[in-house]
């Protein structure tokens, strides 16, 4: 039995808690997250409201719970978009001859040089601010890193004897990509997805903070931060709770990514 | 009609020639050895027959396979992929990496038969795969195993089963036993010979091991510096070598001269593109003269002969 590495366990636990919270929020939250109760505006944490209430009297804990749904949803769709475009591009770049491959990778570099947030704001300005545009924009901005990582992995696979053997057995390029190259880069895809997820969570928070992300009243950690700005001195807890949630989510997915990489790369594990 | 006819094969990368003027024929059911040190161009010759050379390595000349009405050199990938694995199969050197780690053994064996529709349905291919495993003396329950669960010798037998699955007219083996234990070597060699004899397939066997050639092959070609320097029946070449390189190679592997110092060929194989002009062996040859600056002509027939200005031994019978 292999020793479990600590970052995999820590990352797994944090991500697990966030996923569990999101699932729980579908069936139960202490209060309705969007319910406005003027009688308890800006209440401090108490037994009735564990994390206190905001300027409209909404329960902060309930908002954070429901907000985790937005965060995970954005992450899943953004990473999905990035993987669906980036993985085939990377494999294609590894398998095609020099010219098409160079074209793909240089276009990729161009996109890599473009700041993700700027792209998302541009998308927001053109298509209107919504969770969907934010997700797609973050996803597209994450395509280059996927394509780059997958290409390097696929290049290694292409040099193995089993790919040569598959060609010697008369396999055509597309089945080779599907049956021999893709299954052997799945570990890279998993690791990259986990790292990109962390980036997507942060990007969604930043976009919502700037007003280009999830529109009200859907709770979102980034918008909670933005709404807390005017009370930063009188009620700093309004910024602290969503801030901790964002930090934990990013930390969790990064640790998970690190842990998965160590687990999939035996050379790295031997060195420790 | 020969199964394989290679004529005037040249392989070059940019302006460096790696293989020059290789002529090679393999008759039906014949077992031919291709022998030489690392860097002599044996593997490149094999890869150009299959059309699997890397992108910037360019072959020229002619490679004809019986039953195929076009030249394999310059044929497009689509035409080649119909031939590979059906008429022409290959066993590679490294059994540890020659199987896909994410696919079950049975699927990998069945795959080759499904590609070429020799067994049209998945279940027929599965049954054939079990039969093939049995022929290489592996239990049928390995069909559901993954490559990492097998030893090197077992994997090489699986690779052999895959190569033989479509009864190819020609099987090419590139150093198939070099990475294996000596005890396993004998078994794998035995299975290779049994496999090709049972299918009356021809065999092109690439190795640097003289003893292996002597047990497996009927005829041998000796390569050095990208050229065929000598060829002939195994017995004749090994007992009465004509080319000075063949002579040196045989002397270096003579283990009966116990007690004395190991006999070696002076110097090392030059890097690709740094072989001397004329006779490629002249900078390491004790018999070289000024005459050797010109490329020696081929003496003998197309299947038995040598290319040397100062041949050793008596003329071939």
Automatic annotation (TrEMBL), chain A:
<dbReference type="GO" id="GO:0005886">
    <property type="term" value="C:plasma membrane"/>
</dbReference>
<feature type="domain" description="ABC transmembrane type-1">
    <location>
        <begin position="68"/>
        <end position="257"/>
    </location>
</feature>
<feature type="transmembrane region" description="Helical">
    <location>
        <begin position="72"/>
        <end position="95"/>
    </location>
</feature>
<dbReference type="Pfam" id="PF00528">
    <property type="entry name" value="BPD_transp_1"/>
</dbReference>
<dbReference type="InterPro" id="IPR050366">
    <property type="entry name" value="BP-dependent_transpt_permease"/>
</dbReference>
<keyword id="KW-1003">Cell membrane</keyword>
<keyword id="KW-0812">Transmembrane</keyword>
<feature type="transmembrane region" description="Helical">
    <location>
        <begin position="188"/>
        <end position="211"/>
    </location>
</feature>
<feature type="transmembrane region" description="Helical">
    <location>
        <begin position="231"/>
        <end position="257"/>
    </location>
</feature>
<keyword id="KW-0472">Membrane</keyword>
<protein>
    <submittedName>
        <fullName>ABC transporter permease</fullName>
    </submittedName>
</protein>
<feature type="transmembrane region" description="Helical">
    <location>
        <begin position="107"/>
        <end position="126"/>
    </location>
</feature>
<keyword id="KW-1133">Transmembrane helix</keyword>
<feature type="transmembrane region" description="Helical">
    <location>
        <begin position="7"/>
        <end position="28"/>
    </location>
</feature>
<keyword id="KW-0813">Transport</keyword>
<feature type="transmembrane region" description="Helical">
    <location>
        <begin position="132"/>
        <end position="150"/>
    </location>
</feature>
<dbReference type="InterPro" id="IPR000515">
    <property type="entry name" value="MetI-like"/>
</dbReference>
<dbReference type="GO" id="GO:0055085">
    <property type="term" value="P:transmembrane transport"/>
</dbReference>
<comment type="similarity">
    <text>Belongs to the binding-protein-dependent transport system permease family.</text>
</comment>
<dbReference type="InterPro" id="IPR035906">
    <property type="entry name" value="MetI-like_sf"/>
</dbReference>
TrEMBL record, chain B:
<dbReference type="InterPro" id="IPR050388">
    <property type="entry name" value="ABC_Ni/Peptide_Import"/>
</dbReference>
<dbReference type="InterPro" id="IPR003593">
    <property type="entry name" value="AAA+_ATPase"/>
</dbReference>
<protein>
    <submittedName>
        <fullName>ABC transporter ATP-binding protein</fullName>
    </submittedName>
</protein>
<keyword id="KW-0547">Nucleotide-binding</keyword>
<keyword id="KW-0813">Transport</keyword>
<keyword id="KW-1003">Cell membrane</keyword>
<dbReference type="Pfam" id="PF08352">
    <property type="entry name" value="oligo_HPY"/>
</dbReference>
<dbReference type="Pfam" id="PF00005">
    <property type="entry name" value="ABC_tran"/>
</dbReference>
<dbReference type="GO" id="GO:0016887">
    <property type="term" value="F:ATP hydrolysis activity"/>
</dbReference>
<keyword id="KW-0472">Membrane</keyword>
<dbReference type="GO" id="GO:0005524">
    <property type="term" value="F:ATP binding"/>
</dbReference>
<dbReference type="InterPro" id="IPR017871">
    <property type="entry name" value="ABC_transporter-like_CS"/>
</dbReference>
<dbReference type="GO" id="GO:0005886">
    <property type="term" value="C:plasma membrane"/>
</dbReference>
<dbReference type="InterPro" id="IPR013563">
    <property type="entry name" value="Oligopep_ABC_C"/>
</dbReference>
<comment type="similarity">
    <text>Belongs to the ABC transporter superfamily.</text>
</comment>
<dbReference type="GO" id="GO:0015833">
    <property type="term" value="P:peptide transport"/>
</dbReference>
<dbReference type="InterPro" id="IPR003439">
    <property type="entry name" value="ABC_transporter-like_ATP-bd"/>
</dbReference>
<keyword id="KW-0067">ATP-binding</keyword>
<dbReference type="InterPro" id="IPR027417">
    <property type="entry name" value="P-loop_NTPase"/>
</dbReference>
<feature type="domain" description="ABC transporter">
    <location>
        <begin position="4"/>
        <end position="250"/>
    </location>
</feature>
